[in-house]
Amino acid sequence: MWYRAAYLGAIISYGVVIYKSFGVPRTDKAYVQRALMDENVQYLVMAVYWCYVKPISLTLIPYITFSLFHLLTFTRTTLLPAMSSQSAEGSSSSHSSMSKNIQAWVKENYDRAMRFVSYAEVVIFVRVLLGAIVLRNSLLAPLLYAHFLRLRFYMSSFTRAAFQHVRSELDSIVQHPSCPSAVRKAYLMLTDLVTRYACTVLNINAESSSTPTGARATPQSSTPADATKMKSR
Q1: What is the distance of C-alpha 31 from the center of its chain?
Q2: Exposure winner among 142, 160, 162, 178, fewest CB in 10 A?
Q3: pLDDT one-digit tens code per residue, 104-120
Q4: What are the boundaries of the region Disordered (predicted)?
Q5: pLDDT digits (tens, 9 = 90+) for 156-200
Q6: Burial of 227 (0-12, 13-18, 19+ CB in 10 A)
Q7: Residue 115 to residue 99: CA distance in whole angstroms
Q8: Which of 45, 79, 31 is nearest to 151 (CA)?
Q9: Quick check: pTM over 0.85?
């Protein structure tokens, strides 16, 4: 119950943000391309999928993290000013101090939290891939999540850093003399396949650069989706 309630909340939240950013949905090619390359749309699609399949609690980690920062920002920018305007001078000073503390905490921990989310998403992919192999979840889950991560790799410096670090660690393990040659060969084939798959997004983007400016997707930020940040764009 709580699992689906959490995802329904995420769906509503992202839906409102996307509506404010894109307006009424349209079916023309330029609108669809721009929407599909928007990080909030990507997280909304995944939220809808996770909401209606067999629960995998691990998938909630990114959404919970984003919600925490969204809540803190909403408290600082909306709730505290509203409370200050209706309270005495002493309380207003207290609210101002609290607002500064929240802002400082968010600024100090935002990058750390986004790195945490990026590694969590790598772990989630491993979980759904193994789950598909042992028939614990749908075969569609790793395919859909792989495409999602491919887009995140293109759009997010945090995701790229996470994948590069994981690959570096795996490379050091595979290159160890004790590693069987068959495992090393399989690993090299797998990394080559993953690299080619990830690069298709970059190739598509390069091809789209020849299209008219009005039909080109707007470049996105390098950080994972956050409803608060999208509202401020």
Answers
A1: 21
A2: 178
A3: 999 999 999 999 999 99
A4: 208-233
A5: 999 999 999 999 999 999 988 888 889 889 988 888 888 777 666
A6: buried
A7: 25
A8: 45
A9: no
